[in-house]
Write a structure and sequence with these properties.
The protein is mainly alpha-helical. It contains 6 helices and 3 strands, in the order ααβαβαβαα. 42% of the residues lie in helices and 9% in strands. The protein has a 3-stranded parallel beta sheet, with helices on one face. The longest helix is centred in the first third of the chain and has 26 residues, at 24-49.
Length: 160
Amino acid sequence: MKPRGASHVASRGEGTAGAVGDDPYRRGRALRWKALLGLTGIGLYAAWVEPRWVEVTCREFHLPRLPAAWDGLRIAHLTDLHFGDMQPARDIRSAIDRVLALAPELVLITGDFVSGLGLLGSEARAALAAMAAAPLGAFAVLGNHDHRAGASEAIEATRA
C-alpha cells in the first residue's frame, strides 16, 4: 500500500492546487466578497450608527475683547440634523432635548436640516421651534442638502 500521509500529498503537489492564492478566479471571487462585506459594513454604519451618534462637547473660550456682559454665555451649536427618511424626527428631537437640557442662551444651527428630498413634517418643525425658546433665540443658515431639497421649506421652518 502506498503512503497517503500529508508528506506524500505535498510531495506530489496535491493539496496546493486550487488554493485561493493560486487560482485567479477564486482570488477574484474572494476579493469581491471582501469588498461586498466592507461596503455593507460601511452602509450599515452610515445608516444605523452615525445618525444616532450624538456628541455633546462643552468648550470654554476666553476672548480678551468680549464684552463683560457676554462672559459665561452658553451657546449651543447644532449641525447636520438631516431630517428625512433615514433620520426620524423623534431621534433628532431627542438630540435637541439633550442640547436644550444644557440651558443654552443662544442656539446656532449650521445647515442640512433635511436629507435628500425629505420634507420637514410637523414633528420636525416642532423640534426646530423648541430651540427658539433660548433667551437670545436661535439662528440658522442653510446647508447644501437644504438647497437640493428646496431651500424655501427649510427657511420657513427656521422662522418658526
